[in-house]
Design a protein that fits this description.
With 215 residues, the protein is α/β, with parallel strands linked by helices. The chain is 44% helix and 16% strand. It has helices at 2-16, 27-33, 39-45, 57-62, 72-78, 93-100, 102-108, 111-117, 127-139, 147-150, 189-202, and strands at residues 25-26, 49-50, 67-69, 85-89, 121-124, 151-153, 175-182, 206-213. The strands form three sheets. It has a four-stranded parallel sheet with strand order 3-4-5-6. A two-stranded parallel sheet has the order 1-2.
Length: 215
């Protein structure tokens, strides 16, 4: 999900800045997916989970200096947070729910201002996204004059160390794949242009696009 996709690179970025980071995530999705996963991997991940029945448990167990929460819904559950709280907004989830589950949108709508109100600092993935969130943050009680100081754009990124296992390319002609949903609130042109410029400079390789439109 979006929160997980955001949480991993944010954690790696904080680690590269010299901070000690502990990642935790909800146990219930892991339990639901467990039958189709490697049992050893599930057991290895379970100590880093918490239950939605007690979302404040990680605060008591790990006693963090700062909390980064990739979910305004979770932020609402742990408020008031005893330490500074940054809330990352992976996407306009209520807009998505209008197409996926309207009843869920109605139920969660009132929680969004409460979760944002718990934040000391807010991050999101793009400038257009940030503009979308400004009215929500105003509803949550943020000082309009201080919005630009308390809301930062942190683009979705990959770990620069590149320690993920890779298969060797089949030949000298590198093929680069860009795939997924074309999100209307994010601009993919910066990485695509950088990729094309690199391919053109080296005089080899090709870029394949496999995209479909967001509803």
């Amino acid at each position: 999900v979006g929160g997980g996709l955001r949480g991993w690179p944010l954690a790696r970025g904080l680690e590269r800045a010299g901070l000690d980071v502990t990642l935790v995530f909800p146990r219930e999705p892991l339990d639901a997916l467990a039958p189709g996963l490697d049992p050893a991997a599930v057991e290895a991940a379970r100590p880093w989970t918490f239950s939605w029945a007690d979302p404040r448990a990680p605060l008591r167990e790990h006693r963090p200096d700062v909390v980064v929460c990739c979910s305004w819904f979770l932020a609402a559950q742990i408020a008031p947070c005893p330490v500074p709280l940054a809330v990352d907004l992976a996407g306009p989830i209520l807009l998505e729910f209008l197409y996926q589950d309207r009843q869920k949108a109605r139920e969660l709508g009132p929680l969004k201002p409460r979760g944002l109100a718990a934040a000391d600092f807010v991050t999101c993935a793009g400038a257009r996204q940030r503009a979308y969130f400004y009215p929500w943050l105003t509803l949550a009680g943020f000082d309009q004059g201080a919005l630009t100081e308390r809301v930062a754009v942190v683009p979705i990124s990959a770990d620069p160390r590149g320690d993920i296992a890779r298969d060797a390319p089949p030949g000298d002609e590198p093929a680069i794949l860009f795939a997924g949903v074309a999100l209307p609130w994010q601009d993919p042109l910066i990485p695509l242009r950088a990729t094309l410029e690199t391919l053109e400079r080296r005089g080899r390789g090709h870029l394949d696009l496999y995209l479909y439109a967001h509803p």
